[in-house]
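request received
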Amino acid sequence: MVGEAIIKVVNLNSYFGPLQALKNINLEIHRNEILGIIGPANSGKTTFLRALNRLNNLNDTYSQSGEIFLEGQDISGISDNALRKRIGIIFALPQVLPVSIYNNVAYGPKVHGVTDKKTVSEIVENALKKAYLWDEVKDRLDLPAPRLSGGQQQRLCIARTLAIEPEIILYDEPCSGLDPISTAKIEDAMEQLKENYTQILVTNNTKQAARVSERCGFFLMGELVEISETTALFTHPKDQRTDDYVTGRFG
Amino acid sequence: MSTARGREKAAFIILGFATLLVVLPIILTIVYIIKNGFSAISWEFITQSPRNGMREGGIFPAIVGTIILIIGTMVFSLPLGILSAIYLVEYARDNAFTRLIKLSVVNLSGIPSIVYGLFGFTLFVLFLKLGTSILAGALTLSIMSLPVIITATKEALEAVPYSFREISFSLGATKWQTVRYCVLPYAIPGILTGTVLSLSRAAGETAPILFTVAAFYLPRLPRSVFDQVMALPYHLYVISTQVPNMPAGISFATAFVLIALVFLMNLVSILLRAHYRKKKQW
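response:
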């Protein structure tokens, strides 16, 4: 199943100071797919993800060359705020703000100028439902978010991202700190979100990539070694290095 | 085993003794001041002007003067110090130039207060022709307080986890929204504590106000910001060294009122911090 490209990355090179983190990355991301990205630590997965919504630029030493197109438009012509509203991200560790569950989710709409209380609470409810968290927290929306369990916090982060109504959701090893049941819940949520969102999942867990993604890319030392249909990548990898990694011979 | 225990005991004694050496003089000073000055404190002492060459009456104008100077210092130094610290931490890029600025700010807080006094006298009193006035004094005290306020605010901002900013940026918030909603609320306790401490230090300083605002004897309240005022630290200096046959009780009572004022300010800062700490959840 080949959809139309929503993101196109052309000759992307990334640097932190003198260190090159990404080397000449070219790839397309299809609308409504879940693209898995696997690779060992320091392979550039996270840098690639954060290049898409320019979070890398928060680091003063970061620089990059090449182009990234979002629906045909070069993202360098889009402001940080507008870009990040369209491309949301879930971080590796659940990172909630030390405010209530409600205010965590309402923060996004608030900074994007939604002031009507009724609208905001509708957005919050919808986002929590889509992230499969509503039933667990609907009676205690005023509870400080840090009191939730790790898995609940991570779903809260998903809800918070959904509340800004992005087109694309980036996941940066979203389950690395979670137990298998919480992981399953997050994967369920991702499966449901496929209908309306394009999702990119960076993961250290190759099995998770195999379970969840439709296409999968393998990064190694800043290079995109191989990208193809997930089943093909795992059963008939074209590159020896991919084969070594997915079969567990290294990494 | 036994030598380890012996060393443990020695460490305990040395550390405890060092702490005692620090705390004891402070306690003795306060006890001494209270013992000698408390009898001279009365309603009249706090609400009346000095009489008979300051040997009788109260210190009301000096109390009011000091409070006015604290408020004036607050008005000038608080917004300026806090805003520039926000700029340095949140907005300025980390390069050699900003590092130089940060280093200078830290070093400025080590400059002796008499230097600030002379600087204020030259700049505000003479060059800007403000004369010896509340305005000149408050500005001088502000310049002196700024490095401490900036440093305290900077540390409070840097203590806020970076992830809060990252969350906010990742949701498409602007820099100012991020600072306003995800950084400042969590830095306020630290900012308040540092600021109040610097203001209480300003309240007790003599050197910066010596040439810029303090009146030797002015038994009335100021009429405008261009008036001189009496101030507690300078008044204390005057009655202790410049007035012959001064009843000792009055000097000690004045010192007591000054200490009480500073203590009151610190108390406010402690209470505020406790209030905010209850809300802290990370």
